[in-house]
Backbone:
């Protein structure tokens, strides 16, 4: 046993050290960096200060945080709404079709994120298909292109994360015991009431997982605002990037990152603990039953 | 026959969702074969844009860089990740913190890791380039290889290892002759997964590549190209990449599944 443990430590050590050096240490460094002063020509002065955090909660950056949250929130609501109904439609399809439908719903997720986003530039730009199509329909001068607006960013986020919502909502729907719904209908509930009182509450874990995922990845998103929002339009991820690479204010960038990472981690942890609780409850139900 | 209520409504929901998911990609693929290159006019089938692609030096250099990054980081991650998986599984009990450190790279959003690595490299005054991209990619590749190999180890019959030791084989011989051959499909599958992830990865590469032109990977090249608008060449490139990654992932899944079943 002792020998096995020794060998196991030898096997674990290289990967473990790698993760410590390139994941744990960098994350700790961000935590520390935010409390230092910015040097006059960029770089860092090692004097303790809280002014970076004062700046974060200053109107400019707090405003960017709020607008990022608003965009991420809107994208989340739309993605969850569409994704849930898609998952519901798949889960109520004939059993033999379900794996295929699910496979094709998730397939786009396997292709490159940049390319999926680029596909919308192709569709939305001023010489693009949508504007061309509206001209062909005879709308005078065509509808204006929404590319490089907030709507385009939201659309891109919804498009990119929809497959994940479908997947996470499908899981509880497929597991759901059909007897519950039948019992409800037999007892005289309308289809809508059955949906509202039985199906929807039972699918909450899937909806929550999908929503948290979309929100977390949207609020910290860097690619979609840069591409579909044009340069004019900034979300917090882009601002952080600029602090590190163009504005050269690393401590402020670190402080902004810390707040962003904090928001993300809190949401992910709430979701993880909620999921754990629902699994615990399920086990308990099985034991009781 | 079970009654299927709301058949039409369900069908229209599915039609809408699948159209939403596939029209943009299909338009992109279609346009890459469009002779004239204009998005609104179809002027005939052509492979012109694909040929153009192979004459573009920037794209070829970026492709070479990407292959270097993906290959080196996959090799490192496959070796370390497999060792990690075996090490973790032969242990009686693992601390929670060890488990969380192993899982963390799969859960942490890319942007977080990217920012953290960028600030560390900047603070330590490390010149960034292909090497910093490679060591950064190993972080998440490692976690994926480890989880694929561990899944295979869960169904592993440890008595063959004991048998080998009882028959007098050294632990190295046992590892080489018994454990590794049994694990090989999972190792290859995990490695392919890591390779694909690394080929596609943009954010971490973008943040840890430094300013040099020599360290531009293909996704970074695509990013800078599409910021300036639509060209038929990018359509062709995008089409190729989409097919390549879907193909690699299907192979990876098939190798692993073929053994399990």
Residues:
């Amino acid at each position: 046993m002792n020998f096995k443990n020794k060998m196991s430590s030898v096997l674990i050590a290289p990967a473990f050290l790698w993760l410590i050096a390139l994941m744990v240490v960098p994350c700790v460094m961000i935590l520390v960096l935010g409390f230092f002063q910015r040097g006059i020509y960029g770089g860092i002065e090692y004097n303790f200060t809280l002014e970076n955090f004062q700046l974060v909660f200053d109107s400019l950056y707090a405003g960017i945080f709020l607008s990022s949250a608003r965009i991420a929130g809107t994208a989340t609501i739309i993605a969850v709404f569409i994704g849930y109904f898609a998952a519901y439609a798949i889960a109520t399809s004939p059993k033999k079709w379900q794996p295929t439908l699910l496979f094709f719903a998730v397939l786009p997720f396997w292709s490159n994120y940049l390319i999926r986003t680029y596909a919308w530039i192709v569709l939305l730009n001023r010489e693009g298909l949508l504007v061309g199509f509206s001209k062909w329909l005879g709308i005078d001068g065509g509808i204006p292109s929404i590319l490089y607006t907030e709507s385009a960013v939201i659309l891109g986020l919804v498009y990119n994360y929809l497959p994940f919502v479908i997947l996470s909502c499908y899981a509880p729907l497929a597991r759901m015991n059909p007897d519950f719904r039948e019992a409800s209908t037999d007892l005289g509930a309308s289809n809508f009431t059955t949906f509202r009182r039985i199906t929807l509450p039972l699918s909450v874990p899937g909806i929550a997982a999908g929503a948290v995922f979309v929100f977390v990845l949207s609020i910290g998103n860097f690619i979609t605002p840069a591409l579909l929002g044009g340069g004019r339009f900034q979300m917090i991820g882009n601002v952080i990037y600029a602090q590190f690479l163009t504005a050269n204010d690393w401590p402020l960038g670190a402080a902004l990152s810390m707040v962003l990472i904090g928001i993300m981690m809190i949401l992910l942890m709430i979701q993880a603990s909620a999921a754990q609780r629902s699994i615990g409850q399920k086990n308990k139900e099985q034991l009781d039953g | 026959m079970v009654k299927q209520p709301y058949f039409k409504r369900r069908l229209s929901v599915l039609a809408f969702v699948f159209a939403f998911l596939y029209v943009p990609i299909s338009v992109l693929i279609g346009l890459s074969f469009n002779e004239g290159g204009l998005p609104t006019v179809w002027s005939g089938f052509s492979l012109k844009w694909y040929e153009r692609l192979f004459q573009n030096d920037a794209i070829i250099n970026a492709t070479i860089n990407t292959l270097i990054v993906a290959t080196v980081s996959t090799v490192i991650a496959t070796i370390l990740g497999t060792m990690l998986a075996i090490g973790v599984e032969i242990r009686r009990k693992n601390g929670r913190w060890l488990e969380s450190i192993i899982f963390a790279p799969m859960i942490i959003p890319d942007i977080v890791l990217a920012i953290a690595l960028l600030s560390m490299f900047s603070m330590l005054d490390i010149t960034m380039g292909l090497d910093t991209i490679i060591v950064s990619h190993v972080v998440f590749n490692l976690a994926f290889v480890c989880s694929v190999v561990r899944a295979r180890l869960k169904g592993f019959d440890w008595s063959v290892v004991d048998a080998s030791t009882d028959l007098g084989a050294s632990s190295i011989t046992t590892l080489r002759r018994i454990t590794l051959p049994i694990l090989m499909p999972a190792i290859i599958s995990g490695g392919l997964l890591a390779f694909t992830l690394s080929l596609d990865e943009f954010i971490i590469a973008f943040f840890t590549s430094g300013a040099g032109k020599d360290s531009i990977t293909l996704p970074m090249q695509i990013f800078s190209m599409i910021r300036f608008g639509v060209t038929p060449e990018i359509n062709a490139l995008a089409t190729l990449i989409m097919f390549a990654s879907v193909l690699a992932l299907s192979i990876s899944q098939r190798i692993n599944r073929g053994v399990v079943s």
Notes: Chain B has one domain: 58-260. Residues 172 and 178 of chain B are 10 Å apart (CA to CA).
